[in-house]
Design goal:
Length: about 130
């Protein structure tokens, strides 16, 4: 089994898609006004409105407080400098975590946490290569 995508449900597909285009540097494929995908190395980020999920009140946009969307980059400090003025709430400026990643945490426009990190210790680098 392979992870194909993570889908984020939002009431404003265009706004959230624009945000993730800025963060990732990738252009989304906007299949419809209510569904877009960013194709990244290894997986996709899908962004959809509640109409993409069957059932009434199956999803509740902008209430996630458990999942974190994570991106590995070559230089987290350079990414922070690039994104500092574009992201809303910065939860944690680049910090060395006990497991060896230098990590930046901020929230997307719907409040979902986004982690941009760079493995910096030998152990963290080795984990990313396996």
């Amino acid at each position: 089994m392979n992870l194909n995508a993570i889908r984020l449900i939002t009431d404003d597909v265009a706004r959230l898609t624009d945000f993730y285009e800025l963060v990732t540097g990738h252009t989304a494929i906007r299949h419809a006004p209510y569904f877009a995908e960013l194709v990244l190395s290894g997986a996709k980020i899908a962004i959809g409105s509640p109409v993409t999920v069957p059932g009434e009140n199956t999803t509740l946009p902008a209430v996630n407080r458990t999942a974190i969307v994570e991106f590995r980059v070559d230089d987290v400090d350079a990414e922070f400098a690039r994104l500092r003025d574009a992201v809303g709430e910065v939860v944690q400026e680049p910090t060395l975590m006990p497991w060896g990643n230098r990590s930046l945490l901020f929230r997307d426009p719907d409040g979902t946490l986004v982690n941009i990190f760079t493995p910096v210790t030998a152990e963290a680098v080795a984990r990313q290569q396996s």
